[in-house]
Specification:
single chain, 188 residues, Lipocalin
């Protein structure tokens, strides 16, 4: 039999831990700030206004695809309900509001999202989970949207897990590219 000695096993474990730290730490670096408040259901209750939407690439580059041209509202209710609506401020207006063309409709929903449901908070993981009951995009209903959450005074930062570039951000990332969205909200 071939036995691994304790020093060899310890060396292999250290190498494995180092590899895990390097591979998990380089993609999508997190902000170096520590929250001044624990993320709890009580701390999140109320109305939040979107102040910034950031697109974070795997190499750490940050873009603001909608610059200052973004607006939104996030509401957490004491009964566990939630709703979020956000989008570009200056979306195109159709020539005939009662009969928009297919192209006009597509441009109207580009850079816009809305969904509602319930939420849970996991303070030990600094996560908020949105249990989607209904949404602008019908395929999202029934899904859980997990967000990393950082709360500092009156600013809430929600970070979407890495996912492939989605359709309405196609001008800012390439199909198949892994990106994160970081939404910064302020209580008002």
């Amino acid at each position: 039999m071939n036995y691994i000695t304790l020093p060899k096993l310890a060396a292999r474990v250290l190498i494995l831990l180092a590899v895990c730290a390097v591979t998990s730490g380089q993609a999508f670096p997190q902000a170096a700030t520590k929250p001044s408040q624990p993320v709890s259901k009580q701390a999140l209750l109320g109305t939040w206004h979107l102040v910034r939407f950031e697109l974070v690439r795997a190499d750490g580059r940050v873009q603001e695809p909608f610059s200052a041209d973004v607006s939104g509202m996030l509401v957490y209710l004491a009964d566990g309900g939630m709703i979020v609506v956000w989008g570009r401020k200056n979306r195109p207006v159709p020539k005939e509001s009662s009969t928009p063309t297919a192209g006009e409709l597509a441009k109207m929903i580009e850079g816009f999202d809305a969904y509602w449901g319930t939420f849970d908070v996991h303070p030990d993981r600094s996560q908020v989970v949105h249990h989607v009951k209904g949404a602008m995009e019908p395929n999202v209903a029934g899904a859980d949207r997990i967000r990393s959450a950082t709360l500092e005074k009156d600013t809430l930062t929600l970070v979407v897990p890495p996912s492939e570039c989605w359709w309405d951000l196609a001008n800012y990332c390439t199909p198949g590219e892994k990106i994160q969205a970081r939404l910064i909200w302020r209580r008002q």
